[in-house]
From TrEMBL:
The chain crosses the membrane at residues 12-36, 42-64, 89-109, 121-142, 149-167, 195-215, 227-247, 267-291, 331-349, 355-376, 385-405, 417-435, 471-494, 500-519. Its main location: membrane. It holds the Pfam family SSF. Residues 443-466 are annotated as: Disordered. Residues 443-452 have a biased composition (Low complexity). Belongs to the sodium:solute symporter (SSF) (TC 2.A.21) family. It is a multi-pass membrane protein. The lineage of its organism: Bacteria, Pseudomonadati, Bacteroidota, Cytophagia, Cytophagales. Keywords: Cell membrane, Ion transport, Membrane, Sodium, Sodium transport, Transmembrane, Transmembrane helix, Transport. This is Sodium transporter. It is found in: Cell membrane. It comes from Cyclobacterium jeungdonense.
Length: 530
């Protein structure tokens, strides 16, 4: 159970950080941000670079505190900190809202397949949703982490090939700048104003620092220092990667300026189809699909953890390990079916950009800010954070749906994000000041949170099997990289263009694979001697 939901509890911080980066970065990079980059230009890079600030803030202030809770899930932390009633409320609210998030993340995976192969979008959702459900149910969190790291390496190598080929296609950097729209290189553009960026930093600090799925990346490493490094690595990657990743769809705007509406969601893929040599497009497509799918499988694994550990297990405390694993895999499949249903409704909601940003604005601060605040506050109790979450959600829903219908008044995107992020923070601050002023401790405080009391028969208590699973996970990564490196070299042999890039990337990936295989062998040898 600990391996299935926490990957053994000692994942190397570098792997956990890359997994966090891919879980969040890939949710809509090629579709959501690619669409914004094609339509508005440099502002897509500005938006993504803002997330590096969130990563550094999380590394400095939040990640270590989550690790100190010693909780397997955020639901377990809420039970320890605020009581069972509060935990139940947030559990069912989180599961309901996660269907919306996960369905929104499944849609761009299917969109990629739809654009490249012209397979019907709904058939694509069924095919890929079913595949993701199965391998997540089989492999647990290690299946999620391994695919995240694999796709990071594959896609980074691929995009470093796409970028120079895209510039060659457009006729060089100077022609790209000259023929791009007049406002294409403005730091802010259209509805993406400085206020939107400020709100986006606040939202992502709360979302990445408090989302139940992402908190797993801080709690599944071995200590608090490793948890901090996970946040810092995430921030560092977002400081560098946006420029590299967003230039291809921007360049495609000059090559083909005629995309409109939902067609812009396919700009990234169309650029790849124009420049990649035979074979490389297939690898890029596979990488994009499963990198984008990482947000789906992360949420599936987390939902299964919550349903198994925090809903089923308290009802059946005598359930054994085998029974709990059956429930975990069944919960993964059940939640996956719901996700497929939500993904079917994304086109009717105005496309993926509108869905992702609207869901984030309405729910992000309301759902995750109270739990984060509880990591620092000694005076908040469960009833007050429930009230704050409920009021914040009601106000956000009012401005999003009811006010435009009744009074023809709606918030613009910047205001929507600002209200969604800072309203719950303001409420939390007011309650905190009131409680401190009254001189009463109305909550148990973070200092009361201690390590869960594991027993010999506890199915999720740490054991040596976790270290064996981690060594095995590194071995899987190493051999996978060796296979991918060989593929790059073989594609370079048969390709008519970009041979140097393919050979160079293939050799680097082969070196990485050999390193991980040797590291895994040393860990297994050390475990065998203990």
């Amino acid at each position: 159970m600990k391996s299935f939901f926490a990957a053994g509890g000692a994942v190397p911080w570098s792997i956990s950080g890359l997994s966090l980066f891919m879980s969040f970065f890939s949710a809509g990079t090629f579709v959501v941000w690619g669409s914004i980059a094609y339509e508005w230009g440099w502002v897509a890079i500005t938006i993504q670079m803002a997330m590096c600030i969130s990563g550094f803030l999380i590394g400095a202030f939040l990640a270590a505190r989550w690790k100190k809770t010693n909780a397997l899930t955020v639901a377990a932390y809420l039970t320890q900190r605020f009581g069972k009633r509060t935990q139940r409320y947030y559990t069912f609210l989180f599961l309901a809202l996660s269907l919306g998030y996960t369905g929104a993340f499944l849609y761009p995976v299917a969109k990629i397949l739809n654009v490249v192969t012209e397979v019907n979008i709904y058939h694509s959702i069924l095919l890929l949703g079913g595949l993701i459900m199965v391998y997540t149910a089989v492999g647990g969190l290690w299946a999620v982490v391994v695919t995240d790291v694999l796709q990071f390496v594959i896609l980074t190598a691929a995009v470093l090939i796409v970028l120079p080929l895209s510039l060659e296609k457009v006729g060089g950097w100077n022609r790209f700048i000259q023929e791009a729209p007049e406002t294409f290189f403005h730091i802010f553009n259209d509805t993406y104003t400085p206020w939107f960026i400020l709100a986006f930093i606040g939202y992502n600090t709360i979302f990445i620092g408090g989302n139940w799925a992402y908190v797993q990346r801080y709690t599944s490493v071995k200590d608090t220092l490793s948890a901090k490094k996970v946040g810092f690595l995430f921030g560092g990657l977002y400081l560098i990667s946006p420029v590299i990743w967003m230039l291809p769809p921007m360049i495609y705007r000059v090559i083909d300026p005629g995309l409109t509406g939902l067609e812009t969601e396919g700009a990234y893929l169309m650029m790849c189809m124009n420049v990649l040599p035979a074979g490389m497009l297939g690898m890029m497509l596979g990488g994009m699909i499963f990198a984008t799918a990482s947000s789906v499988n992360t949420s599936l694994n987390l939902a299964a953890a919550v349903l198994t550990n925090d809903v089923y297990r308290p009802l059946f405390p005598k359930a054994g390990n085998r029974q709990l694993m059956q429930v975990a895999r069944g919960a993964t499949l059940l939640f996956g079916l719901g996700t497929i249903g939500v993904a079917f409704m994304v086109p009717m909601a105005g496309g993926i950009v509108e869905v992702v940003l609207s869901i984030g604005a309405i729910t992000g601060g309301a759902l995750y800010a109270p739990a984060i605040w509880g990591l620092f506050s000694k005076v908040l109790d469960g009833s007050r954070i429930l009230l704050i979450t409920g009021l914040s959600l009601l106000i956000n829903v009012y401005f999003k749906f009811i006010s435009p219908w009744l009074f023809s008044f709606s918030l613009d995107r910047s205001s929507e994000m600002l209200v969604g992020v800072f309203l719950p923070l303001a409420m939390l601050g007011i309650v905190e000041l009131y409680a401190r002023g009254s001189g009463k401790k109305i909550g148990s405080g973070p200092s009361s949170i201690s390590s869960p009391h594991h027993t010999e028969n506890d199915p999720i208590s740490p054991s040596g099997s976790g270290e064996k699973q981690n060594a095995y996970g590194l071995s899987v990564l190493g051999w996978s990289f060796l296979s991918m490196g060989i593929l790059f070299v073989l594609i370079g042999i048969v390709a008519s263009t970009a041979r140097f890039y393919l050979f160079f990337m293939g050799i680097l990936i082969l070196i990485l694979g050999v390193t991980l295989v040797r590291l895994s062998g040393k860990r297994k040898a050390r475990l065998n001697t203990l």
